[in-house]
């Protein structure tokens, strides 16, 4: 009767399940970490270590997290955990941006729904509601971030709206004020008619917009060249609404101009026979064609310098626009588009404003804050600038000024908050000078001292700082830190008194920024000053100044952090946002950058590379991913992508990550099962290990260096790939496959089995630690599963461990080269066996006996090794000479050929190898020699 030897086989045992069931199990681990206060324990562990501080760029507190938030926060978490587990102290203090327009809008929306007028609500009440709104979303986002597995000081985050933060922002502004860098002056700034406030460049995004184009005659009333006498110069613009603000026409002194007389016109043309028109010679053909001018003669050609001193009349002359319009030289005039003569409205364009300032032009107040013309604008008072195109064209036509009208689709500035188009509008605003106190120079010098990852970030931010205008820091809104400045009504100069700033800051620290509105100004001004002599500014600060100041009240304001930060990390759009505002704020007050390194990531797109949009229906929310897969899958997606570029996500991509996760999880499960009952007494020293184990230890040594290098480069895509490939290729497809027989069937005290389990213990030790910053839940689950039930030390966690040092004695380059060749040859053998299985000539590899022909260069590769053991066959023969023509070969492994035959002998009932010795043991006639010995001494 056949004996059942199953009980004598050392099958793996583990309580670590194959299926992770992450959505259900991850919350329990979060509770465990919260209960043991893991973050505080890590701070205690790192008390005397070198500190690494990643300063959190504040997300905005106004809604649920989106997938971009997940990418950003997970990357930050992975970095901080990697630094902590490499032996540093890596605290992470999350933060939130709490002021600004989006929150105001939500409160205003509530008012409108209730029929209330925001302007009738007391300012302090309005600000209180904004503060409560932000607090609500901070609480919501906090829990959503924690669910991602992000570990931080969640009970003590930094908020830009705490009283202490607002007070410090006041102090930071005060430094710019007292140093003379903060000033108020007229400027043509980006203005949002929808939001009724000035916007900085960082708040602008560009979208395509179709605009009305017009070509307009400006009649010359003072000629400086004979050809200009009785002529009209032509301007072209995409903003017809700016015509009422025109005060000059700009020309290029070195450009070539032409005066032409109209001799032929097409039907419908607005041109007039015999009139003389002046424009750039290079653009004449295109302009005349668009105007329907079919015939012309050249009256004269001349350089632009001939315009010097010439004067035109406004197209609406005689209807309230009775002023001279001088022709002025401008470096910005080109022949790329238009007419080569640029309509100049000093109140509605940056170059226009600068040209007007240089020549003392009037800056008329033509457009109100809501985008309508002011009462003093003839003809168009009360019209909205975005709705006036048709009327403007009609009026110009009636005045005989319009020559042509068209349509142009072009890139146009929009507010990134409201998505509505903006205008240039001249107003008096508060600025921080880029030149006073050499702020631009300091910022450029600081950029060169910072490490930028990727390196292209350096040139990007440098080019922005080199050309950026003065920093516009004022906003005409209510919810934010006020510009706490008093202006002398007689001189118009701001009061630059440090004691006044200190008194304001103290009050704000006690009551919040509302103190600026509720306390008596005399309290701030101090004795000897009459409040009637000063204007108390009511504008609020640009929220970029808020976030740009976070280094001062977070990095400098907490003893668990350090200044400057080791790293800032945000999306690539922050070169013109937070990275730049922090740089300028810090350079303006401290002379250098608040960060040592800056890392940027791309944006999240759908699987087809499209921007996510609710209307398209391609939005994937992190909450959805967690509910279906678990947070570890989301974390694996983040690090598996090359986030230096834009990152794609889709159901198919997430499914692929779930497959990759299962391979990593099964690696942990296999190791845990194989290590069941392992003790220190079983451990084998390196010198006594078989060659295969020494090769695997070399691979561990190699991988340790590669992972540390990837972490130093913030290259987690490479780190994740290294871990996955090692588990899938080196372990599952090779080492585990080869050593399964040894684990199951060798005697417990055999050298091979002890060596295998020793190496597997080292593998588990390193793989759980290396994976812990990425798969925070799974690594902890696997590490806890290593302990007997109920014997986990209190407060212990895989996340408190340090990356183990790897013994240089494990390195063996010669052995690695030999085993590289062994594995190449093994691929040919296993490929040949797979053909036999596919053709159903054998059912399992243990039924096979491959004969392997090796060319001379491979003759000694297997010296001292058992090719049958490595091929998972019952026998194998190595030979030289010429192989049969029909032998199996692989093109990329020349010099190796294989023919597979059947193994001789009977099948061992315990290890299933087919061997001639089966049947020779009287006590165990169904076993081979090894298994008979193992059972006899088991």
UniProtKB/TrEMBL annotation:
Cofactor note text: Binds 1 zinc ion per subunit.
Gene Ontology molecular function: any one: isoleucine-tRNA ligase activity
Motif ('KMSKS' region) on chain: 611-615
Cofactor: Zn(2+)
Domain called Methionyl/Valyl/Leucyl/Isoleucyl-tRNA synthetase anticodon-binding: residue spans: 694-848
E.C. designation(s): 6.1.1.5
Protein's cellular compartments: Cytoplasm
Keyword DNA-binding: no
Chain sites annotated for binding L-isoleucyl-5'-AMP: 570
Positions bound to ATP: 614
Domain Zinc finger FPG/IleRS-type residues, every copy: 905-933
Chain location of the short sequence motif 'HIGH' region per the record: 59-69
InterPro entries (UniProt xref): aa-tRNA-synth_I_CS, aa-tRNA-synth_Ia, Anticodon_Ile_BEm, Ile-tRNA-ligase, Ile-tRNA-ligase_type1, Ile-tRNA_ligase, M/V/L/I-tRNA-synth_anticd-bd, Rossmann-like_a/b/a_fold
Segments forming domain Aminoacyl-tRNA synthetase class Ia: 29-650
Binding site for Zn(2+): 908, 911, 928, 931
GO cellular component: cytosol
Assembly and interaction partners: Monomer.
Protein family membership: Belongs to the class-I aminoacyl-tRNA synthetase family. IleS type 1 subfamily.
Domains as described in the record: IleRS has two distinct active sites: one for aminoacylation and one for editing. The misactivated valine is translocated from the active site to the editing site, which sterically excludes the correctly activated isoleucine. The single editing site contains two valyl binding pockets, one specific for each substrate (Val-AMP or Val-tRNA(Ile)).
Function: Catalyzes the attachment of isoleucine to tRNA(Ile). As IleRS can inadvertently accommodate and process structurally similar amino acids such as valine, to avoid such errors it has two additional distinct tRNA(Ile)-dependent editing activities. One activity is designated as 'pretransfer' editing and involves the hydrolysis of activated Val-AMP. The other activity is designated 'posttransfer' editing and involves deacylation of mischarged Val-tRNA(Ile).
Name of the protein in its database record: Isoleucine--tRNA ligase
């Amino acid at each position: 009767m056949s004996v059942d030897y199953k009980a004598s086989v050392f099958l793996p045992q583990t309580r670590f399940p194959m299926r992770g069931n992450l959505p259900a199990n991850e919350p329990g681990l979060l509770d465990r970490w919260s209960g043991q206060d893991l973050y505080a324990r890590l701070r205690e562990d790192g008390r005397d270590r070198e500190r690494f501080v990643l300063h959190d760029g504040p997300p905005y507190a106004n809604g649920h997290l989106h997938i971009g938030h997940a990418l950003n926060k997970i990357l930050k978490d992975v970095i901080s955990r990697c630094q902590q587990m490499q032996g540093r102290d890596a605290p992470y203090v999350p933060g939130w941006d709490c002021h600004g327009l989006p929150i105001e809008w939500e409160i205003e929306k509530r008012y409108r729904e209730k029929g209330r007028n925001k302007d009738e609500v007391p300012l302090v009440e309005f600000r209180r509601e904004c503060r409560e709104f932000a607090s609500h979303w901070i609480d919501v986002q906090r829990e959503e971030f924690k669910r991602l597995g992000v570990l931080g000081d969640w009970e003590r985050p930094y908020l830009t709206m705490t009283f202490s933060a607002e007070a410090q922002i006041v102090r930071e502004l005060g430094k710019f004020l007292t140093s003379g860098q903060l000033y108020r002056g007229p400027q043509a700034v980006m203005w949002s008619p929808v939001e009724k406030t000035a916007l900085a460049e960082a708040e602008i995004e560009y979208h395509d917009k179709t605009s009305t184009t017009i070509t307009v005659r400006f009649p010359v009333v003072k000629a400086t060249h004979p050809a200009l006498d009785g002529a009209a110069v032509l301007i072209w613009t995409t903003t017809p609404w700016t015509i009422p603000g025109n005060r000059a026409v700009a020309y290029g002194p070195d450009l070539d101009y032409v005066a032409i007389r109209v001799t032929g016109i097409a039907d419908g043309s607005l041109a007039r026979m015999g009139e003389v028109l002046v424009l750039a010679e290079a653009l004449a053909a295109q302009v005349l064609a668009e105007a329907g001018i079919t015939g012309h003669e050249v009256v004269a050609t001349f350089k632009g310098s001939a315009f010097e001193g010439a004067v035109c009349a406004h197209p609406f002359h005689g209807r309230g626009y009775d002023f001279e319009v001088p022709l002025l030289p401008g470096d910005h005039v080109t022949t790329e588009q238009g007419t080569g003569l640029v309509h100049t409205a000093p109140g509605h364009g940056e170059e226009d404003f600068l040209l007007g300032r240089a020549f003392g032009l009037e800056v008329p107040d033509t457009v109100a804050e809501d985008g309508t013309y002011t009462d003093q604008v003839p003809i168009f008072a009360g019209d909205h600038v975005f709705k006036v195109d048709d009327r403007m064209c009609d009026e110009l036509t009636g005045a005989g000024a319009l020559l042509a009208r068209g349509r142009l689709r072009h890139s146009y500035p929009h507010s990134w908050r409201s998505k509505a188009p903006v205008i240039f509008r001249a107003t008096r605003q508060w600025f921080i000078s880029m030149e006073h106190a050499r702020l631009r120079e300091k910022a450029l010098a600081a950029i060169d001292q910072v490490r930028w990852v990727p390196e292209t970030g350096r040139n990007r931010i440098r080019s922005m700082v080199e050309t950026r205008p003065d920093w516009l820091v004022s906003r005409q809104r209510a919810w934010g830190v006020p510009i706490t400045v008093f202006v002398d009504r007689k001189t118009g100069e701001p009061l630059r008194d440090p004691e006044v700033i200190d008194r304001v800051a103290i009050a704000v620290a006690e009551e919040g920024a509302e103190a600026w509105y509720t306390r008596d100004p005399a309290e701030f001004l101090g004795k000897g000053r009459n409040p009637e002599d000063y204007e108390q500014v009511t504008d609020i600060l640009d929220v970029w100044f808020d976030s740009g100041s976070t280094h001062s009240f977070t990095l400098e304001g907490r003893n668990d952090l350090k200044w400057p930060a080791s790293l800032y990390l945000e999306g690539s759009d922050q070169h013109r946002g937070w990275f730049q505002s922090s740089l300028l704020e810090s350079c303006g007050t401290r002379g250098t950058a608040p960060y040592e390194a800056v890392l940027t990531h791309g944006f999240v797109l759908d699987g087809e590379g499209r921007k996510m949009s609710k209307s398209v229906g391609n939005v994937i929310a992190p909450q959805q991913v967690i509910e279906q897969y678990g947070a570890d899958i989301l974390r694996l997606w983040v690090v598996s992508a090359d986030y230096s570029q834009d990152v794609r996500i889709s159901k198919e991509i997430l499914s692929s990550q779930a497959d990759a996760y299962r391979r990593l999880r099964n690696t942990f499960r296999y190791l845990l099962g194989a290590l069941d009952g392992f003790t220190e007494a079983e451990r084998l020293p390196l010198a006594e290990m078989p060659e295969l184990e020494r090769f695997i230890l070399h691979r561990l040594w190699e991988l340790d260096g590669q992972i540390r290098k990837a972490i130093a480069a913030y290259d987690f895509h490479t780190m994740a790939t290294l871990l996955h490939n090692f588990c899938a290729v080196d372990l599952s497809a090779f080492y585990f496959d080869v050593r399964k027989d040894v684990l199951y069937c060798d005697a417990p005290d055999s050298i091979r089995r002890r060596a295998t389990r020793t190496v597997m213990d080292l593998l588990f030790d390193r793989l759980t630690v290396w994976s812990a910053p990425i798969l925070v839940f799974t690594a902890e689950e696997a590490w806890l599963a290593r302990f007997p039930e109920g014997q986990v030390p209190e407060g212990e966690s895989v996340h408190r461990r340090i990356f183990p040092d790897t013994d240089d004695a494990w390195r063996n380059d010669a052995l690695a080269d030999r085993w590289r060749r062994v594995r190449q040859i093994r691929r040919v053998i296993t490929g040949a066996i797979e053909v036999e299985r596919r053709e159903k000539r054998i059912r399992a590899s243990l039924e096979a006996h491959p004969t392997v022909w090796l060319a001379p260069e491979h003759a000694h590769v297997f010296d001292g090794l058992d090719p049958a053991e490595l091929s998972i066959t019952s026998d194998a023969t190595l030979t030289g000479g010429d192989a049969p023509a029909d032998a199996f070969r692989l093109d990329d492994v020349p010099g190796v050929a294989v023919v597979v035959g059947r193994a001789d002998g009977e099948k061992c009932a315990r290890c299933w190898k087919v061997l001639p010795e089966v049947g020779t043991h009287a006590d165990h006639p169904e076993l081979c020699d090894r298994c008979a010995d193992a059972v006899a001494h088991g």
